Amino acid sequence: MSQALSLLKCVSCGKEFPLSDIRFTCTCGNLLDVVHDLEKLKKSFSLSRKFFEERQLRLNNQPGGGVWNFKELVLPAISEEKIISKQEGNTRLYRNRKLSQWLSVGNLFLKHEGENPTGSFKDRGMTVAVTQAKELDVKAVTCASTGNTSASLAAYASEADITGLVLIPKGNVAIGKISQALAYGAKTLVVNGDFDACMALIQDAQEKLSAYPLNSINPFRLEGQKTIVWETLMQLGWKVPDWFVFPGGNLGNTSAFGKALHEFHQLGFIDVMPRFAVIQAQGASPFYAAFKNGFKNLIPQKAETIATAIRIGNPVNYSKAVRSLQWTNGIVESVSDEEILEAKARVDSAGIGAEPSSCATVAGIRKLVGNGTIKQDETVVGILTGNILKDPQAIVDYHFNNHRPLANPPVEIEATIDDVKEFL
Ligand SMILES: *Cc1c(COP(=O)(O)O)cnc(C)c1O
Ligand SMILES: [Zn+2]
What we know:
Rossmann fold; 4-stranded parallel sheet; binds pyridoxal-5'-phosphate; binds zinc ion
């Protein structure tokens, strides 16, 4: 490795590029990682578990905490006044008796990434990638999005005073998310095509129009998303859980979480690796199919699921995600929309609440406990990726439908106390 603290490096051929290069794939066509000189960073900043713990205590819920608590392992060379942040991270790790019982997992923890500034984990990646965009002095940022990336991009582009342009596939984008993109002031283009068509346009716009993409193909996004697992480990007092369970769409989190744990392992902060269980919706499960064929190849699909945030048929981070599963002895499971909806009704009625894609996590845990893959005495961390209010339509559709097992529809009454009394 050269003098620089961090470089872009191809995951396949190992070719290196400076961090200041605006590029997202190698000359060989494969994905790029942000690679840090961990030994050098550890020495120069005296990095240790204690280093991050002390800063966390000092900066809890203040600028510089959350994602930037881990600055030295995320974007070490950036000067602090250049950081574009909305204090993302520091999300809660819930325990819940009802859900523990329903899932038959005593040691269940749910990390709620829906409690970030714009309501999803995307903010953790966006703070880093927009900081880098500003550093590179780009004039416009873009993304193709099933919703949450555009909501997050719009807010951070505003914060950074950069033009934001979001491409959204026509139909099937949750109302809460498109509302946010419009409200925060990004230019929103509704594309007559699916998510994968939007993705192709974004790559074209980068090459031909120099618009800087903030999709999870952007490796700086993944650097921010690493902090989800690092923060969880600190919340658990550095006890490594047996499992991390989370949904897989474009596989950015799968990639980022694996890199995060691999780096902590290399730094000596943890000495065992947890296992990953990535959960896909049955109608959008190319990664599951690839897992089943031993990762011989990825066959793109036409994706269809109620969980719009994971309605992706050709995940861009596939090769990084395979690596993560190798590092963590990980598995992939798939769940039906029915299973997702039931899990969502459980998560919501437990008073926690999350959008459908997030609840694929919980549906997955239930399935994996049911088939004996996850043991009842194991410690399981599930990631809830987005806020309950992102997709109010999914909630209304469920609870107004009396055929749903957990439906809780509103009831019309006369304005009399007798009518009220009936429900107590
Ligand atoms: C983006 C998103 C996902 C998918 O995450 P990937 O990193 O693309 O696999 C899942 N849930 C929610 C709520 C999201 O916004
Ligand atoms: Zn390469």
